[in-house]
Amino acid sequence: MGRLGKGELPLARQLSVLQEVEQLKQDSVPVKHNKDVEWLIENDPNNYHAIIERLALGESLNKISRETGFQLQILRLIQKRHPESIEIRRQAIVDRMEEAILATTERLSEENDRISVNRLAEVLSECVKNFQLLRGEATTRSETRSVASPEDLKRMFEALPQAKVIE
Q1: Long-range contact set of residues 29-33: C-beta below 8 Å, sequence gap at least 24
Q2: From residue 88, how far is each of 44, 47, 131 by CA, in Å?
Q3: What's the maximum distance between 2 C-alpha atoms anywhere in the chain?
């Protein structure tokens, strides 16, 4: 195993630290907000379920907060109680991005006489890259190759059989 550079942590430790930080964030949620969510569930279940539905439809927490007046902290707690809404929201974003890419490619193909080929390729490439990123796919591919050092090359050439010159 290679040596770690200064300040680098092994991957397992990095994951452990991230989990500890996430736990600290959860522990730091004021009790008042937890009580507010409990109150909402018991006393205003229609609003509570409306928030869950809006989260499931892919609406942002900021938009819901602006339109309902609920604090972001409370909405985050509701969202944590319903993690499926996060996945649905991510999928909604991916679906919208796919639609935008398709619309963009159609528009670009219709206007291809007014757009340079280089710019067209650049825009399409960026759209596809963002779409792949949202879907969790690879956006770049890299290869690593070992190249012989000058000393290795010299040894290889010296090891080749010598050809005799015929006169």
Answers
A1: 29/73, 29/77, 30/73, 33/71, 33/73, 33/74, 33/77
A2: 24, 20, 16
A3: 106
Q: How far apart are CA 147 and CA 162, in angstroms?
A: 24
Q: Which residues fall within 8 angstroms of residue 98, CB to CB, at 6 or more apart?
A: 131
**Mind listing the pLDDT tens digit for each residue in 91-141?**
777 788 788 888 877 887 787 777 777 787 787 788 778 777 777 777 777
Q: Residues 36, 74: contact at Cβ < 8 Å? A: yes
Q: Is the model's pTM score more than 0.70?
A: no
Residue 32: its H or E element: helix 31-43
Tell me the domain boundaries of the chain.
Answer: 16-82, 84-136
Cα separation of 111 and 96, whole Å? 22
Helices (H), strands (E): how many in the chain? 8, 0
